[in-house]
Specification:
By secondary structure, the protein is an alpha+beta fold. About 35% of the residues lie in helices and about 25% in strands. Strand 10 and strand 11 form a beta hairpin. Helix 10 runs antiparallel to helix 12.
């Protein structure tokens, strides 16, 4: 009998393969980064072929490390960077263009154009989403309009679309030789083409975006057998779980009850609040999304606050400015000073997402004096993550009428004690880190395990969750309020930096 469950975690900067045991502990893991491509300011691309290669490499490496075979695993799940858009040729498997990453802002003028007829919330009633550069629909449209010959092939169903989950499942199940073209409801809900109520592609939305239905994948649940891996070390293994990364983290954190919430600190920050089977419309700058759909059970929904740049700001400090050698050095540098020295950093590199939704915002560093040094910059970088999270928490409490009593966290940045303590201080709430920090991959593994009976039900999953560390607020209210006031002042300086004509 298979003892383990596998998960492909394809993220914005790297791809991992992790094997878990039944208690949710990691047995083996391998990880590789892929190139970030910046053709123009605001344009961010990935090479889909490189991502597929890295996926194959990390699977082979992780399995080899522990001398595992496909027979040792019950199934594999996939979780992925959402909204990142790939179009490829069904016959050859080759992308027609690089993947347009979720942070890419090249469709900003299209956002403004579409908003002129019906406003930014033109499609929110059906999709739960505002018009923004973030989602896949306008990215698909851009490739169809700007890459010669693609539209004709798409109309014929020869060029097909997928987010990264779809691209990988298609390749894993045979690619040009019978690859299965599917996605799940969580990823489909991020395209701005799926109706939240029907969980199907909406003909009116497809018409508005001028996207042929023939190029779209079939929409499935988040937990079912989609097909078997066709070759390689996992050959014959069922692919049985598929969740967008933030929904996967919600499942990995076992937030199965309405009112449960988690915040993932990765490239960006994503706070999700489970609202059960109810579709809650946001009035305060959040989005409504599908949380998960387990097999034939009804879909569950969530409110989400999406922040574009958090961990990516640390990488920018490392790669673009060279102030640190590796990302983990940020905490050491920030601890060389007692506070931020009056410096505030608004990382609106791709505009501002929730709760502002301002594509024309750009990054600013405010409050600089000659007193400021690189330690103050480092501290301001970390604090930007916590300030942005507070903005989202406040919006979420207004929308849901639920006061969060504690914030569950996951993602790479939660290893940073200084950030976690400041997050607790600026929220005036306890912040909790679970023992298992790789909750995104774990959520995909859970979904796959449920589909094949490796796990009996969600109660099995909840029994695995436990607390590693809790941070409690120590900052005085007066200081907290003053720092947040200055943060909001800095945000105001970043707004409307780009004119529409630009």
């Amino acid at each position: 009998m298979a003892k383990y469950i596998g998960a492909i975690d394809q993220g914005t900067t790297s791809t991992r393969f992790i094997v878990f045991d039944k208690s949710g502990r990691i047995i083996t893991v391998a990880q590789k980064e892929h190139q970030q491509i910046y053709p123009k300011p605001g344009w961010i691309e990935h090479n889909p072929d490189e991502i597929w290669l890295r996926t194959q490499e990390v699977i082979a490496e992780a399995m080899k490390t522990k001398k595992l075979t496909a027979q040792d695993l019950a199934a594999v799940g996939i979780t992925n960077q959402r909204e990142t858009t790939v179009l490829w040729n069904r016959k050859t498997g080759k992308p027609v263009y690089n993947a347009l990453v979720w942070q890419d802002t090249r469709v900003a003028n299209d956002v403004a154009k579409f908003a002129r007829k019906g406003g930014q919330d033109r499609f929110r009633a059906k999709t739960g989403l505002p018009l923004a550069t973030y989602f896949s629909g306008l990215k698909i449209r851009w490739i169809l309009q700007n890459v010669t010959g693609v539209r004709k092939l798409a109309d014929a169903g020869e060029v097909i679309f997928g987010n990264i989950d779809t691209f990988l499942i298609w390749h894993l199940t045979g690619g040009p030789n019978g690859g299965i073209h599917v996605t799940d409801v969580t990823n489909a809900s991020r395209t701005q083409l799926m109706n939240l109520k029907t969980l199907a592609w909406d003909k009116d939305l497809l018409k508005a975006f001028d996207i042929p239905k023939a190029m779209l994948p079939n929409i499935c649940s988040s937990s079912e057998i989609y097909g078997d891996v066709s070759s390689g070390i996992l050959a014959g293994l069922p692919i049985a779980g598929d969740l967008g990364d933030q929904q996967a983290a919600l499942v990995g954190q076992t937030c199965f009850k309405p009112g449960a919430a988690k915040n993932t600190y990765g490239t960006g920050c994503f706070l999700l609040l489970h609202t059960g089977r109810q579709i809650v419309k946001s009035r305060f700058g959040l989005i409504t999304t599908v949380a998960y759909k387990l097999g034939k059970q009804p879909a569950h929904y969530a409110l989400e606050g999406s922040v574009a740049i958090t961990g990516a700001l640390v990488q920018w400090l490392r790669d673009n400015l060279g102030l640190i050698n590796k990302s983990s050095d940020i905490e050491t540098l920030a601890r060389t000073v007692e506070d931020n020295g009056g410096v505030y950093f608004v990382p609106a590199f791709s505009g501002l997402f929730a709760p502002h939704w301002k594509a024309n915002a750009r990054g600013v560093i405010a409050g600089l004096t000659r007193y400021a040094n690189k330690g103050h910059i480092a501290r301001a970088v970390l604090e930007a993550t916590a300030f942005q999270t507070r903005e989202v928490v406040e919006a979420m409490e207004k929308d849901s009428k639920i006061k969060l009593d504690v914030l569950r966290t996951d993602g790479g940045m939660i290893e940073n004690d200084l950030l976690m303590q400041f997050q607790s201080d600026i929220l005036a709430k306890p912040v909790v880190r679970p023992v298992m920090k790789e909750t995104t991959a774990l959520g995909a593994a859970y979904a796959a395990g449920l589909a094949v009976g490796f796990f009996e039900d969600v109660n099995d999953l909840c029994a695995n969750w436990s607390v590693d560390k809790t941070w409690k607020p120590t900052m005085k209210e007066k200081k907290r309020n003053e720092m947040y006031r200055l943060w909001k002042k800095a945000v105001s300086k970043s707004l409307d930096w780009i004119d529409e004509a630009d």
